[in-house]
Structure to design on (80 residues):
């Protein structure tokens, strides 16, 4: 694969997913660099549920479609 030379060599990976909690459609942009990838957190902009992906830097999340569950609560990360 041929890449344009630049200070940030690496593959930009863009994928879409639906939030498992609220149903919002997310587009996630992650830069992947061999040997520099590690587990990165990102969260759903609508409900705050967090996800993880392998990337070299913090992923950027765009909202493609608003949540579909008709609620406006936040995902509860911690259960007591
Ligand atoms: Zn969500």
């Amino acid at each position: 694969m041929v890449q344009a030379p630049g200070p940030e060599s690496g593959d930009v990976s863009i994928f879409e997913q639906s939030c498992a909690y609220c149903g919002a459609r997310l587009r996630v942009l992650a830069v992947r660099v061999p040997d520099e990838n590690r587990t990165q957190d990102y969260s759903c902009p609508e409900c705050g549920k967090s996800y993880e992906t392998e990337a070299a830097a913090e992923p950027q999340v765009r909202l493609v479609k608003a949540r579909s569950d008709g609620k406006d609560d936040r995902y509860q990360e911690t259960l007591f």
Summary: The pocket of zinc ion is lined by residues 19, 21-22, 24, 44, 46-47, 49, 67 (CB under 6 Å). Residues 23 and 77 are 17 Å apart (CA to CA). The radius of gyration is 15 Å. The mean pLDDT is 90.
